[in-house]
Design brief:
By secondary structure, the protein is mainly β. The protein is built from two helices and eight strands. The chain starts with 11 loop residues before the first strand and ends with a helix.
Length: 124
């Protein structure tokens, strides 16, 4: 067993980190199918809890994650994907990282510029 999907009801956290800079880009969830597809294809695939289906990173935006390395934590229930972020942004808000806000004086403040306009990319 590479990863223990049973501990948390079939899902594990998956952290995406830029392989070149070490910047944490995002946290998402994987089920067994998403994990196996990621290993097989070399492209990040996650499980969308809100849509209850596989989510292939970049399928709408073109901002895919090429997986360079997969690390598993000591409890076998979290993975760290070292990725090459294609298109410059990992976050659906258009920011490079999902972690683009800082708490200052009890308030959230955006601390990064957008890479793309989400309204122009996601035409739902």
């Amino acid at each position: 067993m590479l990863v223990d999907f049973d501990k948390a009801g079939g899902l594990i956290p998956a952290i995406a980190q830029d392989v070149a800079t070490g910047e944490v880009l995002m946290l998402a969830w994987m089920n067994r199918e998403a994990f196996e597809e990621t290993l097989r294809t070399g492209r990040a695939c996650y499980f969308s809890r809100s849509r209850n289906k596989l989510w292939r990173k970049g399928e709408e935006s073109g901002h895919v994650q090429e997986v360079q390395e997969v690390l598993v934590d000591c409890d076998n229930d979290t993975v760290l994907l070292k990725v090459r972020q294609i298109g410059g942004a990992a976050c659906h808000t258009g920011h490079r990282s999902c972690f683009h806000r800082r708490i200052e004086n009890g308030q959230l403040h955006v601390v990064a510029q957008r890479v793309f306009d989400p309204a122009a990319v996601y035409k739902k």
